[in-house]
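Running this now, will post back.
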Amino acid sequence: MKLPYLLALGLFTAACGAQDAPRHASQHGDLQLVMVAEGLEHPWGMAFLPDGRMLVTERAGRLRIVSPNGALSAPVNGVPAVRAAGQGGLLDVALSPDFTTDSLVYLTYSEPGDGDESGTALARGKLEGNALLDVQVLFRQTPKLPTVHHFGSRIVFDGKGHVFVTMGDRGMRPLAQQTDGHQGTVVRLKLDGTVPADNPFIGKEGVLPEIWSYGHRNIQGAARHPTTGALWAHEHGPRGGDELNIVEAGKNYGWPLVTLGINYSGEPIPEAVAKTMPGMQDSIHHWLPSIGPSGMAFYTADRFPAWKGNLFVGALAHQQVVRLELDGNTVLREERLLGELKQRVRDVRQGPDGYIYFLTDSPEGKVYRLGLATE
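Update: finished.
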């Protein structure tokens, strides 16, 4: 039997508060960091259920339910098969905008193909107990490829009956500028996976109709702006040049022709011709050196007024949570939180209790709760 919503949130707070809660310095005072759950194998995405429990994906292909006391469920039955290799596996998870009435859960993952091939896919199923029922694949990235890099992938609903799926170039740079495949794109679909009639490339020869934008390297963080409704996303640069973008219909974001980064070898990107170029969108913020961004959430709660309107980003390479202060579409300043964490931060979400929650990416991954120590 499910716990009532408010009771579940209270149990989450009480259970977390009962653990050791070290404090860390920040611009707005001491931070309070609490471990909520542990024992997750490379957790990748999370979503809060209405009763206060949490869905967490493990890259190996398991979906778990995390209870308010931090206990992990057995793997949820019915999750689609994944090709868990390299950066691929079970990726993001999101609740349907109408979850309270339809119980639908959306998942992105690397779907196996022929031989070693795979591609980013979007599926949904109805959550009943510890199982997903009537699972449907709504979208498949084409073509499938044998590489094990740059799958993306985050799920964002636009509040108007559509869903965005972010993807990467699969480690094959030139594909991000080719619109006859889905590599290096963001796609926009109706909630049932069909293509909206007002997508920007409908009827254009040589462009797949699902495509919303292209020229992306690897988007692992995306969120809808709480005021404007615009899609914001960040993406990994190569060695340097991580970007924060406002992702607009029909726009080209430049990769690999335009980049602030260089190859991991230290050599220039072979296809790169400039740091900016007419007809291609510049980022609104970038990181040099790279922080390895993954996961992203706007803070909209009243619990910590000093954070209201800020954007929180996970950092894999720098093993931190990054807080960005915004003025409209301008990043005014940033603060690096938890520099002593020494754990890769994979996903960041605002919890229904007004705290920030994040996942750490390791064979023994954890769920943490972060807040200001004001209470």
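The helical segments are 5-17, 99-102. More later if anyone needs it.
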